């Protein structure tokens, strides 16, 4: 078997068997599962959390409409309880914990409802907000009835303006499609960001570990450094892919069984296949670009503790790309986004964002991809040179000056 | 059929680490590299292994350049020991062995043989970080030899080992040599080189200052040692013509003399003065030669 495959396989299997990997995967899987079942979980905890609110209705006419209104807007977790005693007694009821709160209803001088809400703390904004909204409806009904408006007229008044956005370009996405695309693009961008950071760091520290444990010298005397570098990069890529597939499978299947609305919101159903294809292409290229950089940087340090400061500049680039992409989600057509989508460091995220949301001419995608591939090629070429020298270099090394030193080592 | 270095020079910027080294190591020989720290031994080894390219000159093994296609013929024990701390000994050796082109079954057999031979069969399933330094070194040695290399390069193989383990390793090295492996090793322990090598080379600041067969080197060195144990005052011998160095010991004196003839004059001088328990004429030790050649160059 070719040495490249031996290195790749070794990297893959040892990473997969590592306890830290298994634990991280389990924890993340649980998180994904929890996240996709969030509505069930919240429901479960809220089951017993009905709020009882006492009501002192000084008008004698507001309690019924308010109760009706609450029911109409489907607020089943607030239970109203009419109370005829004094406010002091009511306050005591709250303090003793019989009620969660009490509401005092009255008319103001214009004969319209007003209310005061009493609770031990007013940290919970949910209950008073719901009560306020319902009371607002009651008030609107009363006020409009007073000036003689019919309920239909009121409905007309509050109906929202029909406002349609229509894209004139033939391939442009409709508004609905755009919303769905935004959801998916956001998730994929975030995944890209997370995976580049996590696994890029893993590669850098992997290389640094081999160097610091000095096993590197045996390794480079057995197999060419270039094969080692790429064996490692692709091995870790497979690890990340494995983890991604596990998480995706869990997320997707639990979404399918629990939250159809969420699935629709993300728009997995109407997204063209090409978006997924581009996602994979840009994801892989982005990964290779950064992974090569991380591997080279890892080869320059002698101890694992020095990895972090060394890779920080590259990490910041990834973060910058992510934030530009976040900005681009709402303004994908701005010339800033168009420009950055050709810069190789940003292209994997930004060009993908554009492809996902806009009709982008194919030549633009091709140019961006070509630039990206050429850059990866250049990095791989120089990277493997630096790597070859870097792995023989020991001593304190936290500056980029070492790149020069490393290249010098590989010269004649 | 041999390892040949011809006019090999390596410069790092302005620093010349190895300067015009020409050596030929016949197949099946054991060749010793001696030198103080920084003399250029490790750099020379790295060039032989192809990890560094020589600035000038060529290195060939049986007439061909050494590259990764031949890595299954070459074994290497680096001076800086290192293994994966978290991996089990067996997993580790399987990985390193496969990188040297061996298949798994063959590796397992070799692992069993070597662990048995080094009297540590129970370590196969242990993680390297759990082993003592000396035992890690044994594992590292196994990693260097399990693919039965034709050319074995050992950088300071015996440093940091206790005498029992030094013997174990030495025997293993001698066995490998008897099976036809060409072995190049470096050390600053003279007695190991003296004991194991037919040919050697003393490096100093990148240049070989002494190079050749051990016997030749000793003979051409000229100077000899005399050891005298006697109950008579011997201090006056320090100024005896032909005596280069003298060192008083508890039982007598050690002298270094310019040539064999001087010993006869000294013997004649002291023979009637009293009781002499021991009078021995000895070959110079490698240590003497090393200090003379490298120490002199320091001044």
From TrEMBL, chain A:
Keyword Kinase carried by entry: no
Annotated keywords: Cell membrane, Membrane, Transmembrane, Transmembrane helix
Transmembrane segments: 20-42, 183-204, 233-255, 276-298, 310-329, 336-356, 362-383
Compartment(s) of residence: Cell membrane
InterPro entries: ABC-2_transporter_component, ABC2_TM
Main location: membrane
Keyword Cytoplasm found: no
One GO term describing the cellular component: plasma membrane
Signal sequence, start to end: none
Domain named ABC-2 type transporter transmembrane: residues: 19-382
UniProt-recorded Gene Ontology molecular function terms: ABC-type transporter activity
Superkingdom, taxonomy of origin: Bacteria
Topological type in the membrane: Multi-pass membrane protein
Protein name: ABC-2 type transport system permease protein
TrEMBL record, chain B:
Highest taxon of the lineage: Bacteria
PANTHER family referenced in this protein's UniProt entry, alphabetically: ABC TRANSPORTER ATP-BINDING PROTEIN, ABC TRANSPORTER ATP-BINDING PROTEIN NATA
Protein name: ABC-2 type transport system ATP-binding protein
Keywords of the record: ATP-binding, Nucleotide-binding, Transport
One Pfam family linked to the record: DrrA1-3_C
ATP-binding in keyword set: yes
Single annotated GO MF: ATP binding
Family classification: Belongs to the ABC transporter superfamily.
PROSITE patterns registered for this protein in UniProt: ABC_TRANSPORTER_1, ABC_TRANSPORTER_2
Domain ABC transporter per the UniProt entry, residue ranges: 3-230
Cited CDD domains: ABC_putative_ATPase
